[in-house]
Amino acid sequence: MGKAARAIIIEDGKILVMRRIKFGAEYHTLVGGRLNEQENTTQALVREVMEETGLKVTAARLVFYEEHKAPHNEQFIYLCEVAPHQDIAIQGTSEEATMNKYDMNIHQPEWVGLRNFAGLHFRTPQLHAAIIQSLQKGFPKEAVKLA
User: How many CB atoms are closer than 10 A to CB 45?
Assistant: First the structure.
């Protein structure tokens, strides 16, 4: 089983998500991805956010953890702050850019209004529900394992 790090990034009343079209199925997920060899979760988080958006993570706090049966990933979900920036875009040297180029498993980062977040078709419903609850009541101070 692999591990993945994902980012919750909220700015100006919007949350950053990744719109995906994978094998014909369209859904949303958080920005992030699998750890490379010799990376820890925070190193992977910083790398993945940069590759998928061009944003530089300046602070990150682990808020959720998901464990999935093989072959899926363990997910480490961080509440992040990023450096001041302009637009977001998948970086040309990333794996996602290559897949987009050949119309394989399309990736598109996008900002979604917090009020619209609940209406998204999210890849992992338990994470989606936890984020919705946290947007209303505040994010946990210590990491919570999602069932």
Answer: 26
> SS3 letters for 57-84?
EEEEEEEEEECCCCCCCEEEEEEEEECC
Does the pLDDT value for residue 11 go beyond 70?
yes
116-124: Cβ within 8 A, 24+ apart: 117/15, 117/17, 120/17, 120/28, 121/26, 121/27, 121/28, 122/27, 122/28, 122/29, 123/20, 123/27, 123/28, 123/29, 124/29, 124/66, 124/75
Give the percent of the chain with pLDDT over 70. Answer: 95
39-60 pLDDT per residue, tens:
999 999 999 999 999 999 999 9
Q: Which residue has the higher pLDDT, 72 or 11?
A: 11
Question: How far is residue 139's CA from residue 101's CA, in Å, rounded to a whole number?
Answer: 36
For domain 3-146, give the CATH number. Answer: 3.90.79.10
Mean pLDDT of 120-147: 95
Report the run of H or E that residue 125 belongs to, with start and end: helix 125-137
